[in-house]
Amino acid sequence: QVQLEESGGKLAQAGGSLRLSCAISGRTINGYTMGWFRQVPGKEREFVAAIRRNGASTYYAASVKGRFTISKTENTVYLQMNALKPEDTGDYYCWAWDNRSNYWGQGTHVTVSL
Question: What is the DSSP string of 7-53?
Fold first, then answer.
């Protein structure tokens, strides 16, 4: 079973940048569609970005398109976050999908201050 471990979340200023990482172990990354979701207290977890197994296609929520970039290497998925806004604050979760099951990391927290 794949294990996912996020890192990189911290306090950042509006207009700044952060890069989140998701380290994958237990399985090869090429077996999964990978992505990022985020959640704030009292709200449902929402989609942020995804990348297909072959890396050829990426998808973004309208709220982050043009500011965030998802990418991957052999065993890590990244979320480059630029032009941060206070509304980007939340817990960010790494996600993997093998066409049968969803897998989640424990999350990493991002706070964006004015």
Answer: E---EEETT--EEEEEEEESS-GGGSEEEEEEE-TTS--EEEEEE-T
pLDDT digits (tens, 9 = 90+) for 3-49: 999 999 999 999 999 999 999 998 888 889 999 999 999 999 999 99
Residue 29: its pLDDT value, please? Answer: 85
Contact assessment for residue 93 and residue 1, using Cβ atoms and an 8 Å cutoff: no
